[in-house]
């Protein structure tokens, strides 16, 4: 089984804030005492950090749940609880993070050491020292900590390479990569020898250097799942130049020009923007019989499909076996890279809106629905957060929560919907009677 893994679905949960404390001063010679409960500590964030030493998402195959620690509870003497440490999760360069529910791109992590908070920890709850007022100098009120953000994420690895090698199986992509770089891909005389992307660094005679990726499994019908399908084509999306390798000897009994058209059709079917990248046609296996004649025929067919004012793609005859023509090919590729800009990988519509961790002012504070057992059900982010942060062990906290519901207009909304005295109202799993 291959140890290369380039997609993963994981769940992350930031730490809950620590609960605030209800406490009172009990000191000799201090008249009347007073509230002395401290605030809870902040929950830990879940942070992705790029590690250039990682090459695959294999670490996420067996560990799919990441949970940061909760903050410490508030203490007496007005002392705050300690904030929790952030959970650091290391990911390889080129990892795209998406929200599993919406499919939107949250971030694209490409630089070594780049950090991004994928789940924010909850703030600590306030202790009763925060609720003291002239009217209520000794409150028995505290807050529970805010829940940490929880979300399901899709991770997608797209290797960082300047140049991508595409072409049918057995046209010599892996052999070419092994000759021009120090990469040692497995090479055999059968289709689909390469089942993972291979990456190598090229250094030209003039001193230029660039990264090359050999992308496996692309054949006619790949966009419909034939062969290895397009599962590895995501790795070509970051490349700026495509080297289209063609077996000019036709040793597999196929027509080189038909191969060229078929591969381009699959690239276009996968992503129209791949055709924007400049392509160099690499006519490989020129040391074989019939290759020269086939190349002449290929050039004729290629020219016939272009207008006289259109610029034809560059064609470089090479032999990976004898290393014929490689130096020229690499020099031209390096020159093309110098004048080819980075391609925008994601449109604005693909990106998640800038995160806002408060409440949407335009969103309703609560919603009312009716369950099958005739219970009234209250829901909504703001209301549910108030409920979660209420300490129901203290009568004063419960009364405060009731006043907050009344201030939000919940009582009036329930009456308008037909709620009667004694009807059951549910928030989450908590039920209480409606009092008119």
TrEMBL record:
One of its GO terms (biological process) is ribosome biogenesis. It is found in: Cytoplasm. Mg(2+) binds at residues 174, 194. Residues 2-160 form the Obg domain. Its cofactor is Mg(2+). Residues 127-146 are annotated as: Disordered. InterPro entries: G_OBG, GTP-bd, GTP-bd_Obg/CgtA, GTP-bd_prot_GTP1/OBG_C_sf, GTP1-OBG_CS, GTP1_OBG_dom, GTP1_OBG_dom_sf, OBG_GTPase. Its main location: cytoplasm. It comes from the Bacteria. The keyword Hydrolase applies. Residues 358-436 form the OCT domain. One of its GO terms (cellular component) is cytoplasm. GTP binds at residues 167-174, 192-196, 214-217, 284-287, 319-321. Keywords: Cytoplasm, GTP-binding, Hydrolase, Magnesium, Metal-binding, Nucleotide-binding. GO terms for molecular function: GTP binding; GTPase activity; magnesium ion binding. Gene3D superfamilies: GTP-binding protein OBG, C-terminal domain (3.30.300.350), GTP1/OBG domain (2.70.210.12), P-loop containing nucleotide triphosphate hydrolases (3.40.50.300). Residues 161-338 form the OBG-type G domain. Its EC number is 3.6.5.-. An essential GTPase which binds GTP, GDP and possibly (p)ppGpp with moderate affinity, with high nucleotide exchange rates and a fairly low GTP hydrolysis rate. Plays a role in control of the cell cycle, stress response, ribosome biogenesis and in those bacteria that undergo differentiation, in morphogenesis control. Monomer. Belongs to the TRAFAC class OBG-HflX-like GTPase superfamily. OBG GTPase family. PANTHER family: DEVELOPMENTALLY REGULATED GTP-BINDING PROTEIN-RELATED, MITOCHONDRIAL RIBOSOME-ASSOCIATED GTPASE 2. NCBIfam families: Obg_CgtA, Obg_CgtA_exten, PRK12296.1, PRK12297.1, PRK12299.1, small_GTP. This is GTPase Obg. The lineage of its organism: Bacteria, Bacillati, Bacillota, Bacilli, Lactobacillales. The gene is obgE.
């Amino acid at each position: 089984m291959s140890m290369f893994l380039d997609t993963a679905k994981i769940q992350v949960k930031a730490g809950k804030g620590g609960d605030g404390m209800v406490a009172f001063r009990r000191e000799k010679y201090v008249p009347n005492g007073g509230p002395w409960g401290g605030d809870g500590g902040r929950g830990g964030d879940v942070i992705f950090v790029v590690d250039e030493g990682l090459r695959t998402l294999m670490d996420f195959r067996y560990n799919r749940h990441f949970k940061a620690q909760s903050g410490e509870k508030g203490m007496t003497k007005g002392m705050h609880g300690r904030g929790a440490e952030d959970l650091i999760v290391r990911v390889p360069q080129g990892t795209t993070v998406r929200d599993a529910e919406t499919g939107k791109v949250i971030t694209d992590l490409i630089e070594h050491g780049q950090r991004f908070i994928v789940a924010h920890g909850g703030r600590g709850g306030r202790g009763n020292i925060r609720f003291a007022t002239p009217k209520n100098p000794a409150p028995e009120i505290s807050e529970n900590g805010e829940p940490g953000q929880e979300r399901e994420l899709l991770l997608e690895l797209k290797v960082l390479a300047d140049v991508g090698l595409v072409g049918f199986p057995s046209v010599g992509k892996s052999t070419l990569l092994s000759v021009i770089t120090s990469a040692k891909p497995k090479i055999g005389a059968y289709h689909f020898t390469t089942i993972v992307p291979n990456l190598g660094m090229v250094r030209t005679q003039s001193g230029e250097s660039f990264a090359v990726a050999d992308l496996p499994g692309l054949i006619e019908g790949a966009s419909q799942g034939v062969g290895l399908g397009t599962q590895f084509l995501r790795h070509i999306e970051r490349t700026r130049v495509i080297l289209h390798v063609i077996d000019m000897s036709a040793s597999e009994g196929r027509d080189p020009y038909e191969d060229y058209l078929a591969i381009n059709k699959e690239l276009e079917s996968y992503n129209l923007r791949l055709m924007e990248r400049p392509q160099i046609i690499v006519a490989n296996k020129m040391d074989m019989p019939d290759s020269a004649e086939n190349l002449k025929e290929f050039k004729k067919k290629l020219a016939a499909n272009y207008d006289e004012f259109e610029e034809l793609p560059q064609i470089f005859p090479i032999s990976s076996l004898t290393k014929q023509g490689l130096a020229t090919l690499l020099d031209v590729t390096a020159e093309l890279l110098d004048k080819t800009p980075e391609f925008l990988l994601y449109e604005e519509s693909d990106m998640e809106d800038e995160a806002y961790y408060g409440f949407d002012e335009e969103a309703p504070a609560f919603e009312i629905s009716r369950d099958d057992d005739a219970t009234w059900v209250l829901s909504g982010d703001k209301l549910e957060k108030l409920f979660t942060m209420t300490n129901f062990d203290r009568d004063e906290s419960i009364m405060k929560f009731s006043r907050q519901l009344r201030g939000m207009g919940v009582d009036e909304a329930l009456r308008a919907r037909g709620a009667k005295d004694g009807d059951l109202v549910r928030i989450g799993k908590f039920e209480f009677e409606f009092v008119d």
